[in-house]
Write a structure and sequence with these properties.
With 328 residues, the chain is α/β, with parallel strands linked by helices. Helix content is 45%, strand content 19%.
């Protein structure tokens, strides 16, 4: 915890210094902030289309386009557990016209990957507006409740699919099977949550770990929901019990979607984008729609987003270390 506190202090201190420096710039710079955006915005999503991050990014993108009258393009750059997209955005011009939309993976990868082609402090958290409890589902041909499924799994080596290496679904499922349930399970990574769900529906894998991605298939009966890792049942799939109800007290794991910019971006523009995203998720109709999908919504300032990010690096790092999972 002391190390985390130092990290928070350093990053927040740098943000404050940047803001102070911006305050001494010319009137022209202030005018530039007021004119933002004046051209097309690209939102680079770290995972494939149709998944947890992509769904929210597309909605936010459309709403920003409606609000500001500038085209917003979604650019899916899946790969390396979100690192491919993060590296790309970390290296672009810090003008706020290229935004990263990614998941808990960016916090997890700080511990999971021994080497990355970018540093976390090359990015700044803009907003962390949505999260969802992790869930586990299986094909209807297999045991449909957690206790029976684990009993069935004890006699075999099962497979579980996720949105990719280093995703929240990957680490939460690995932690559950290896540390809590003590079941041998092999990870099958996909290039996005939607693809892993499709594989489960096709009975190509034994189970799928996702956030809310499997909710529609569970409701339609194409998949059987085993458990959700929330403190309470999900609004999107209310018939699926929590892990605690299944006998695993205290197991809670929630993934989130965050928006990031290069760290050298003008803090005033970062704040402007933060406010716009928060306004979008606070809209009653938007909130109702996203909640129905399974997102849990929360508005945070840029400073609060940055602090939350670093706490998640610490929280998920502990889980990664407990599983022993690493990526070169």
């Amino acid at each position: 915890m002391p190390n985390l506190s130092r990290k928070v202090a350093v990053r927040l201190g740098l943000a404050a210094l940047s803001l102070a420096l911006v305050g001494t710039t010319s009137v022209r710079a202030a005018e530039d902030v007021s004119k933002y955006p004046s051209k097309r915005i690209n939102i680079v999503v770290g995972f494939a289309a149709g998944g947890f991050a992509d769904t929210l990014a597309r909605l936010i993108g459309q709403k920003l386009q409606d609000k500001w009258g500038q085209t917003v393009v979604i650019d899916n750059r899946a790969g390396a557990g979100g690192n491919t997209a993060a590296k790309y955005v970390a290296g672009v011009e810090p003008d706020a016209y290229t935004i990263l939309a990614t998941t808990t993976a960016i916090a997890i990868n700080e511990t999971l990957y021994k080497q990355r082609d970018y540093k976390l402090d090359e990015l700044t958290a803009v907003a962390m507006p949505a999260s969802s409890a992790e869930s586990l589902a299986t094909h209807p041909s297999k045991p449909g409740n957690l206790k029976d499924f684990l009993a069935w799994a004890k006699d075999r080596e099962i497979t579980y699919g996720t949105a990719g290496v280093g995703s929240g679904s990957h680490i939460a499922a690995e932690y559950f099977f290896k540390v809590l349930a003590k079941v041998k399970a092999n990870h099958v990574p996909f290039r996005g949550g939607a693809l892993s769900v499709q594989a489960a529906v096709g009975n190509q894998i034994d189970t799928v770990a996702s956030s809310f991605g499997s909710a529609p298939q569970i409701v339609e009966g194409k998949l059987a929901g085993l458990a959700v890792a929330g403190t309470e049942r999900s609004v999107a799939m209310p018939k699926v019990p929590t892990y605690e109800e299944g006998g695993f007290k205290g197991f809670v794991a929630e993934s989130w979607v965050g928006f990031f910019l290069p760290s050298k971006t003008d803090p005033k523009i970062v704040d402007k984008l933060n406010g716009a995203i928060n306004d979008i998720i606070n809209d009653p109709q938007t909130k109702q729609y996203l909640t129905g999908l399974g997102y849990q919504l929360k508005t945070r300032s840029t400073a609060e987003s940055e602090k939350y990010l670093l706490s998640e690096v610490d929280n998920w790092g502990k889980m990664v270390k407990a599983t022993g999972v690493t990526v070169e």
